[in-house]
Structure formats: structure tokens, C-alpha cells
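Project outcomes to date are best conveyed with an example. Our students and postdoctoral researchers have been running inverse folding experiments weekly, and each run begins with a structure described purely in C-alpha cells. The record below, which covers 74 residues, was selected by the lab manager from last quarter's runs and is presented without edits.
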């Protein structure tokens, strides 16, 4: 099995309840966006959310320059 990235561990540990946010550098955007897509796919497969919903999303609004948030929606 592949080793879990530090970013994925951080998201799983810190984003526990609705509206929790984590700040990431914009240089990690591609890596984190792929990770968020995968986590949302797994959440749908495990029926944590409805098929049309997303558990995690990426938000740049309100973030400091050069940063973005990963937000838990449910």
C-alpha cells in the first residue's frame, strides 16, 4: 500500500467538524486538489455524503495572499 502524504494526514486529523479550515501554500495547490478529489470520492463510496455533495472543498476567498483553504463542508 502506498504511503500516506503529510497533507492527507493533516486534513484527516484536523478537519473533524463542519466549517473547519486548513491553510495551505499555493505551491501545493495541484497536489492538495487531487487529494481533495480522492477524499471526496471515498466519502461518496462510504456513503458519508450524497453522490452530488462534497465533503471537502478548496476556498481561496478570505485566505492570505499565496495561500488557500481546504474546508470541511459536512
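After processing, the design step wrote out the following sequence:
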Amino acid at each position: 500500500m502506498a504511503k500516506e502524504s503529510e497533507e492527507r494526514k493533516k486534513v484527516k486529523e484536523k478537519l473533524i467538524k463542519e466549517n473547519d479550515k486548513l491553510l495551505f501554500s499555493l505551491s501545493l495547490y495541484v497536489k492538495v486538489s487531487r487529494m481533495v478529489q480522492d477524499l471526496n470520492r471515498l466519502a461518496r463510496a462510504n456513503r458519508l455524503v450524497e453522490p452530488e455533495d462534497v465533503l471537502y472543498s478548496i476556498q481561496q476567498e478570505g485566505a492570505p495572499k499565496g495561500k488557500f483553504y481546504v474546508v470541511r463542508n459536512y
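Residues 6-72 form one domain. The chain has one domain: 6-72. The training component of this project remains on track.
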